[in-house]
Design goal:
Number of helices: 2
Low-confidence stretches: 6-28, 283-290
Number of strands: 14
CATH superfamily of the largest domain: monomeric porin ompg
Structural class: mainly beta
Mean pLDDT: 87
Distance between the termini: 79 Å
CATH architecture of the largest domain: Beta Barrel
Shape: globular
Order of helices and strands: HEEEEHEEEEEEEEEE
Helix content: 10-25%
Strand order of the largest sheet: 1-2-3-6-7-8-9-10-11-12-13-14
Number of domains: 2
């Protein structure tokens, strides 16, 4: 009887010790920041124009990231935008899996157990609400919000945080029309991002974006912007210079190309290519552009 009681005591303290050590291993990890994780873990998400599209947008494509010294990642990408009542857009951004490979140097510096793998990636969702519509004459104002779920795994290999993140931004867009076929829009945004860091709490960061969009004859759209956020720890101040090109091919089909260059705490090069299907299914409900 005494031996049985002693066995249960030892088992209990072993479980407590394992849990305690596990929380310590997570709680005191200082790498849950963009500069010390994989390029898709805490990606600087694009902040969109206040403009509400006149169609449901469905994108399917792939992305690839290169980092120093010789790190590589690639993943399929799915994105859906659904406009609502001339005032809002709901979106879902899904990365089902990520294939990754890192150099021996990165493996040693980050103390990783593997140099390559296939990992479950992140699901993000959010929306945008148009507060004030300048109707092509005055600046428009909108709020964009984003939630990153806990679907991304591979925490110990520094692929994804396996924890939530939340972002909200106020964005202003000021359009200018030139000769009826050229539309320029000057963009700026400020906001706030918070991401969970396990038992260690969370990191908070102001977000920012400056950009310009040029649209030609409603067929070709080119956007240039710089964006990032500024955390209060180390390796948490990513800065991107980004370019995107959207080519309207036929009535419901377009080609979307995104190029992002990391200046600090981000992938050196991030390229994404997608086919965009513009589905006017909701236009009949009066969800056209204002």
């Amino acid at each position: 009887m005494i031996q049985l009681s002693l066995f249960f005591k030892r088992a209990f303290f072993s479980v407590v010790l394992c849990c305690f050590n596990g929380s310590l291993a997570w709680g005191f990890d200082k790498f849950v920041n963009p500069g010390t994780m994989g390029p898709n873990a805490l990606f600087v998400y694009s902040i969109e124009s206040p403009w509400i599209p006149a169609y449901t947008r469905f994108q399917i494509g792939a992305g690839v990231q290169f980092s120093l010294p010789r790190d590589f990642a690639t993943e399929p990408i799915l994105h859906v935008d659904v406009p609502l009542f001339n005032r809002a857009v709901l979106f879902v951004d899904y990365m089902p899996i990520e294939f990754w490979r890192v150099s021996v140097d990165t493996q040693k510096n980050w103390q990783l157990s593997h140099t390559q793998g296939l990992q479950t990636a992140d699901l993000r969702f959010g929306g945008k609400y148009l507060i004030y519509n300048g109707k092509e004459q005055y600046p428009s104002l909108a709020i964009q919000f984003l939630t990153k779920t806990t679907t991304g795994k591979g925490y110990l290999n520094r692929r994804f945080t396996n924890a939530p993140a939340y972002q909200i931004d106020v964005v202003i867009g000021y359009p200018k029309i030139y000769r009826q076929i050229h539309r320029f829009e000057f963009l700026c945004a400020l906001g706030f991002l918070a991401w969970q860091q396990g038992a260690n709490g969370q990191n908070d960061a102001p977000t920012w974006m400056l950009g310009i969009t040029w649209q030609y004859n409603k067929k070709t759209t080119l956007r240039l912007d710089s964006r990032g956020y500024v955390g209060w720890q180390q390796h948490d101040k990513p800065v991107l210079i980004a370019a995107s090109l959207n080519l309207h091919l036929v009535s419901i089909l377009a080609l979307q190309i995104n190029l992002n260059m990391g200046i600090q705490d981000a992938a050196l090069l991030d390229a994404r290519l997608a086919l965009e299907f513009r589905l006017p299914l909701l236009t009949a409900l009066g969800l056209e552009r204002i």
